[in-house]
User: What shape does this take?
Amino acid sequence: MGRPIKKLYIGNRNSTGIGGEGVASTTITGAGTGYTTGEAVTFSAPQLPGGTTATGTVVATAGAVDSITITNAGSGYTSAPTVDLSGEGNGDATATAALTTSTQNAIAISAYVPGGSSAVVGDIVSQKGSKTYRVTTAQGTGECQLVAAAIPTEGQMNITATDSAGDTYYVKKLTNRTAVLLRATGTEFETDAKVKWGDSAILNTQVSLTN
Assistant: This one.
């Protein structure tokens, strides 16, 4: 199958043992009344299996919520969780959460695992063949075939590459050093071009892979 990709780039995309992200911060959209500093905030559960639910506490002045202190960022979020303050104060404060955007080595994928219901973000567990990978998403774990398609169907997955202009390609085949590309919005490289890949894109030389 050619030289497989390095273990550095497969598996979980952060150090917590699960892919996805944690909660970086919250923005108060309604201060509410009757709140006390230190009261607990409830975040919704992460999307990826094995993830940890974020936790936080209120910082309040004269009963109004000023901010939320993140006491545990959690893990396994593929989209921002809801923030529930209804059990604190008068229950009328509101907030939105933002996820971390840290650079991670492991490659992000979109995969439709066998028995799942759709293609969703996930992690590569291991490489089984030149285009076959064992992957984990919020819908389970299974083997998927790498395809150069915008929306994978059951048993398929995709990987997106980006050029120096920020335009995209689908990866047709991936080895330790190069990716064979199919144009999406990108024009820097031709379809079927074999291009170096890494953490950053270099004009006419290298693409970056979503991680």
Q: What stands out?
A: The chain has two domains: 7-13+104-209, 23-99.
